[in-house]
Amino acid sequence: MSHAVDVPSIEELGRDECLRLLRDHSVGRFAVATPGAAPLVIPVNYVLDGEVVVFRSGSGSKLRSLRGMPVSFELDDIDGVRHTGWSVLVRGMAYEATRWESEHLDLEAWAPGDKDHFIRIVPDVITGRRIQHADTFPDLGGYL
Amino acid sequence: MSHAVDVPSIEELGRDECLRLLRDHSVGRFAVATPGAAPLVIPVNYVLDGEVVVFRSGSGSKLRSLRGMPVSFELDDIDGVRHTGWSVLVRGMAYEATRWESEHLDLEAWAPGDKDHFIRIVPDVITGRRIQHADTFPDLGGYL
């Protein structure tokens, strides 16, 4: 294995694996199109409520006009040195949560400002992939 | 300082500071709107060429139809435990680079597949912010 050729491989991740990764992390990026301009992309802390991504937003935020709009949520963990890693992309619709939908969630607002509103991204399509390189595995001798 | 109240603060980052952060990193997220659907958001490795974000794309990729379209590039480093970190958002136009524009760049394609095309994001607006919490600083006693 010490002479492995560095052939990168992409593995498509199934929906269950993507949901597991979403459950195991707490910061991702929310993205929404803006008419005639480049998309808005902002990091947010979130929780997964079933299959729904939930994050907090201020009452004065532009995000309040998102209800029923197609939005995305991206999560990744890429090692820029080893050139390995994975990413997950949730595409769905944004809704503002009612109080009863959100009060059970352990979702702290840690950016400054009034964050009394909960945005829910109800997924339509969840995709993910993992990139690995053969030579990023240690030489395990007889074990491989 | 050991009794500091945890009041988070947001600092807006200037363009020069955003460019410095872009220069010092190598993996960010490219985002583009898709008609009637949620934005596409994908992690890419990139280099900064002056103030232009450059990454590689395959010849068969959907990204080749991006020329002249408004696109975004997001970079962040968020500590989900300490609730601190920063993010940068570049909004601009996508162009495919000519060979002479890209051949001097040290930009390795490390995802599988043919990545012979270089996409350049010429920035229009570059914004960034940093979030800090008072209680995330260590107690330095008399030094503060």
Fold and architecture overview:
Two copies of one chain form a homodimer. With 144 residues, chain A is mainly β. Helices cover 9% and strands 51% of the residues of chain A. In chain A, a hairpin with a 2-residue loop joins strand 3 and strand 4. The longest helix of chain A has 9 residues. Chain A is globular, with a radius of gyration of 18 Å. The interface between A and B is large, with 42 and 41 residues.
List keywords for this structure.
homodimer; 144 residues; mainly beta; six-stranded antiparallel barrel; 2 helices
Share in β-strands of chain A? over 45%
Give the quaternary arrangement of the chains. Answer: homodimer
> What is the average per-residue confidence, as pLDDT of chain A, rounded to a whole number?
83
What's the total helix number of chain A?
A: 2
The chain-level structural class of chain A is mainly beta
Strand order of the largest sheet of chain A: 2-3-4-7-6-5
Q: Helical content of chain A, roughly? A: under 10%
Mind summarizing the main beta sheet of chain A? Answer: 6 strands, antiparallel, barrel
Question: H/E series of chain A, N to C?
Answer: EHEEEEEHE
Rg of chain A, alpha carbons: 18 Å
Largest interchain contact: A-B, 42 and 41 residues
Task: State the end-to-end distance of chain A.
Answer: 7 Å
Which runs of chain A of at least 5 residues are low in confidence (pLDDT < 50)? 136-144
Task: Tell how many strands the DSSP assignment of chain A holds.
Answer: 7
Shape by Cα distribution of chain A: globular
